[in-house]
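We now fix the convention by which a protein and its fold are recorded. The integers have meaning only within a learned vocabulary of local backbone shapes. A complete example follows; check for yourself that the lines match position by position.
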Amino acid sequence: EYSCEYGSLKFYALCGFGGVLSCGLTHTAVVPLDLVKCRMQVDPQKYKSIFNGFSVTIKEDGVRGLAKGWAPTFIGYSMQGLCKFGFYEVFKILYGNMLGEENAYLWRTSLYLAASASAEFFADIALAPMEAAKVRIQTQPGYANTLRQAVPKMFGEEGVWAFYKGVAPLWMR
């Protein structure tokens, strides 16, 4: 009564929900650290170290400034987790069925690697738009303070491409 059938829609939904929780919540929890890290990469003269970066951010934006980019982080990494965990199971079963039961067992490490890579391909496509907005919010002072401000501005300036410029580096990562 507490389980579900392996490979059922409920199974995939639960795997995806696990991905939302594990990726979306954890990445959102470390937004202040990510914000300072991104700012150190963009302006190392101003943000000299992690502690200096926290200090400068709090001085300029207050404690609330440490949360800049939380919404695109939560949405983007939740989508990535949904796809990563859910599609991993989809591809694992799909590729296993293609190989047959015995070959799937014999080649399980390669099967898991192929399923993981396939899932990550789609997960990064789901993440890229929100990651692009997050980076703009966090690293370009005055550009936008919220996701609602960043998305229309990015689309108006560069079109859809603004949201997917970072997908290839995500795949390489």
